[in-house]
From TrEMBL:
It comes from the Eukaryota. Pfam families: LRR_1, LRR_8. InterPro entries: Leu-rich_rpt (IPR001611), Leu-rich_rpt_typical-subtyp (IPR003591), LRR_dom_sf (IPR032675). This is Leucine-rich repeat-containing protein 23. Keywords: Leucine-rich repeat, Repeat. The lineage of its organism: Eukaryota, Metazoa, Ecdysozoa, Arthropoda, Hexapoda. Signal peptide: none annotated. SMART domains: LRR_TYP (SM00369).
Length: 369
């Protein structure tokens, strides 16, 4: 429900104009949700926790400039609360922990600097993306299964397994992480770390995630795949799209993953590694060149990781699997003998620094998404 501002009358600024004025001055005016306003935000009529009576199960008080939502607690049968797009700080959000049957809490786009809510007895989904959270300390929710902290300002992960025993999905996309490191709940099955600045994977930390099935690392700065171990015995899906991986042999380091079936490596320099060879052929059609590069990458991956079932969203065909088997050792040795290394690593680092500086210069003064 949208808050209704009062229009200007005879030269007197309206409510929305006043809010804009004070916001420009860095001042947030108090705005308390009234009982009547909260009542109008109710929806989803259904059976309550008793399974006999009917009640409204959801309240959505979004984009209302609220700083106080205490009145929501009057509706004790509500299971789902969405208070996104307000001016709520952690203290204002704490009142919702008094709700006895709360299952889902969504508080995107507020003024939160911490996610350390008091424990809620039945909370399963907590969505706090696009806030100003910098730390993950002191998050204790005994039944939480999904935690979304994407698009905040988190530099390191410090989550305690015993405080998040049921956590299955952890979303940290779009933060400030520079390493895949820290403390993650052992129960985590899906980990989303895309669009950070990760350039290194710490094996001792990642190896603790023995239940991990899906790992998203898209849009980071990885150029090596060190850090994966056989302890990740349940990992089936890995996305390293749009990183800085330049050599096929890096994927040999994933052979320790017994259940890996799907990998996404698009938009890495390695996808163009066949280009110079193709360019030497006379009158080569561009589409054929792209197809040859694609085939080279797919077959090379299958030689090193024969259990793959899907590469870059496309299923592995029987013909590809046969070709990889036929090429076998010869292709493997060709991959492992690629030139490289310390010099190449220095080149990558210098390139990354130049690119990052250029990007920051171009975007300086622009609004962030």
């Amino acid at each position: 429900m949208q808050g209704e501002g009062h229009p200007a009358v005879e030269g007197i600024p309206g409510e929305d104009d006043l809010y804009k004025h004070f916001l420009l001055q860095g001042v947030i005016l108090p705005k308390i949700l009234t009982f009547d306003e909260a009542s109008k935000c109710l929806s989803n009529l259904g059976k309550d926790e008793s399974g006999v009576r009917y009640a409204y199960l959801m309240i959505s008080a979004t984009d209302m400039k609220l700083t106080d939502i205490t009145k929501i607690t009057c509706f004790k049968h509500v299971l789902f609360v969405d208070v996104s797009g307000n001016y709520l700080e952690l203290e204002a959000l704490q009142v919702l922990c008094e709700m006895p049957f709360l299952i889902l809490l969504k508080a995107e786009r507020n003024k939160l600097t911490s996610a350390a809510l008091n424990p809620c007895p039945y909370l399963q989904v907590l969505v706090l993306n696009k806030n100003q959270i910098v730390e993950t300390n002191d998050i204790t929710q005994p039944y939480l299964e999904t935690l979304d902290l994407s698009n905040n300002s988190i530099y390191e992960v410090r989550l305690v397994s015993k405080n998040l025993k049921e956590l299955k999905l952890l979303e940290l996309t779009g933060n400030q992480l520079t390493e895949l490191a820290g403390d993650f709940p052992v129960s985590t099955e899906k980990l989303y770390l895309g669009m950070n600045r990760i350039n290194k994977i710490i094996a001792s930390d990642l190896s603790k995630l023995v239940n991990l099935k899906i790992l998203h690392l898209r849009g980071n700065k990885l150029h090596k795949l060190d850090g994966f171990t056989a302890a990740l015995r349940n990992l089936t899906y890995l996305n390293v799209r749009n990183n800085n991986i330049r050599h096929m042999r890096q994927f040999r380091k994933l052979a320790c993953l017994p259940k890996l079936e799907t990998i996404v490596i698009l938009d890495n320099p390695v996808m163009n590694m066949r280009q110079e060879h193709v360019g030497e052929e006379e009158e080569e059609e561009e589409v054929d060149a792209e197809e040859e590069k694609k085939d080279f990458v797919r077959i090379s991956l299958l030689v090193m990781l024969p259990n793959l079932k899907r590469i870059n969203k496309e299923l592995v065909t029987p013909e590809e699997r046969d070709e990889a088997f036929f090429l076998g050792d010869d292709k493997y040795h060709e991959i492992m003998e690629e030139p490289s290394s310390e010099e190449d690593s220095l080149l990558i680092t210098a390139t990354d620094m130049t690119t990052e500086y250029s990007t920051e210069t171009e975007t300086e003064g622009q609004d962030q998404p």
